[in-house]
Amino acid sequence: MQIPFTSSPRSSLGVEWELELVDVGTRELARGRAASGILAELAAPYDGEHPKAKHELLESCIEVITGVCTTVDEALGDLAGTVGEVCAAAERRGLGVMCSGTHPFTDWATQEISPNPRYAKLIEDMQWLARRLQIFGVHVHVGVRSPEKAIPIVNALTAYIPHFLALSASSPYWMGTDTGLASARSKVFEGLPTAGLPYQLSGWDDFEKFMETLICAHTISTIREVWWDVRPHPQFGTVELRICDGLPTLYEIGWAAALSQCLVEMFNSQLDKGYTLPMPKGWTVRENKWRAARYGVEAEIIVDETGRTTPLCDALDELVHDLTPIAERLGCTQELLRIKDILTIGPSYMRQRSVAAAHGGDLTAVVDALMAEMRSNAPIGAVAAP
Q: Taking the chain, what is the end-to-end CA distance rounded to the nearest angstrom?
C-alpha cells in the first residue's frame, strides 16, 4: 500500500499536552462527563468543536494542541492560551488541572470512557489493557519534508529515548502505591501490542509494507493505531516523539520541544549532506529505555556494543552542549538549557516523592503540588516561565 506523506516545513513544531481534571475536594481524577462539559463550553464560539482542545480516552482528560509553529516560544505561547481557557472552565466547575504521567492514587476502574467510537473500539479490542490506560503524556511533532527522511530520523532518535523519558518521568505512583519506577506510565502503555519501541525499518517502502501487513491482518484498521514511542506521522508530515511522560509545567514543555526540534534539525542537516544516520542496536535501545523508566536521570545507559556505560545525567549535559549551536539558530537556546535546570532541581518523579516524604506519605499533597506547579507554569525550585 502507498501511504501519502504531507511534506512539512523543515523543523516546524507542534505539541500535544494531555491535562488531568481533578476534583479539588478529593484530589482524585474527576468522575462523570467532566471533559465533555468543559469542551462543550469551550466549543460554543466555534462551529463544531474547539480547534485546540480535544477529548482523550478518559473523561478526566483534555488534550490541548498547538497549531503549526516555527519556534518553541511560539508553541509555548499557543499552548498557554488554550490551557488558560481549560483551567478557567475547570475552576468554574470546582475542578483543578494538572499533568503527570499517572495520577498518584485514582483507581482507573472509576473512570468513564469518552463518547467516541474510536475509543469504544479500542476498549472492545484491547479490553483490560485499554481500560487501565489512566496515563498521560506529551507528544512533540517536528516537520520533515519527505518520507525518505522520516524513517532514518525515527531510527536515529531511538538512541535518545532514555534521555527524553528520564527527564520527563513523572509517574512513580500507581493507584496509591510507589512502584519503585521513575516512569510507570511507560510500562503501562507498553501493554498495548502496537505501542512501545518502534521497529527499525529500512525506509519508507518498508514502513508501507509493514502497515499493509498490519491492516490486512486486522491488527489495526488505520496507521493511527500504531502508538510507537517515536513514529512518522504521514498526515502531518512530521516525526512524532511520544515517549515523554506528562510534564507538569510549560517550563518543562519548553525543554522537550527544544530537544525534539534540535535533534530532528541535526539529523535533517546530516541527511542533506549525504550522511547515513546511526541506527542503534535494538537490544541496546530496549535496555536503555528500561533503565530510564526504572532509575530516571540516575540511570547509567549503554553507549556501545562492548557494554560500556555512562551516567545518563552526564550524557544529557554533553547533549545540551553539542546541540547549543543548533538551538541558537532555531531560537530555543533558553529552553534547551532548561535541561540543566531540571537536572539540578530534579524531574517530576523526584519532586513528587520529595513532597510525599515531607507529608508522611500523603499523596493528596502530591496532587496539590502538581496543581500548584501547573498554576505557576514552573516546577518547584525553578524560575517561573513567562
A: 46
Q: Report the distance separating Cα 249 and Cα 79, nearest Å.
A: 11
- Cβ atoms 58, 114 nearer than 8 A: yes
Burial class (CB in 10 A: 0-12, 13-18, 19+), 254: buried
What are the cell numbers at 142?
A: 517536528
Across 30-63, b (16+ Cβ under 10 Å) vs e yields beeebbebbbebbeeeeeeebebbbbbbbbbbbb
CA angle (316 as vertex; 315, 321 as ends), nearest 5 = 100
**Residues β-bridged to residue 240:** 141, 231
- pTM for the predicted model, two decimal places: 0.97
**Residue type for position 127:** Q
- pLDDT-based confidence at residue 297 (cuts at 50, 70, 90): very high
Q: Are 255 and 138 in contact (CB under 8 A)?
A: no
To 5 degrees, how large is the angle CA 130–CA 28–CA 360?
A: 115
Distance from C-alpha of 85 to C-alpha of 91, rounded to nearest angstrom: 10
Q: Name the residue among 31, 23, 13, 114 with its Cα closest to residue 69.
A: 13
Write out pLDDT tens, residues 304-348. 888 999 999 999 999 999 999 999 999 999 999 999 999 999 999
Radius of gyration of the chain (CA): 20
99 φ/ψ angles, rounded to the nearest 5 degrees: -145, 135
Taking alpha carbons only, the member of 320, 255, 264 closest to residue 151 is 264
Return the half-sphere exposure (C-beta side, CA atoms, 13 A cut-off) of residue 126. Answer: 21
| Burial (CB count <10 Å: 0-12, 13-18, 19+), residue 345 | middle
Please report the domains of the chain, with CATH numbers, ordered by start residue: 13-371 (3.30.590.20)
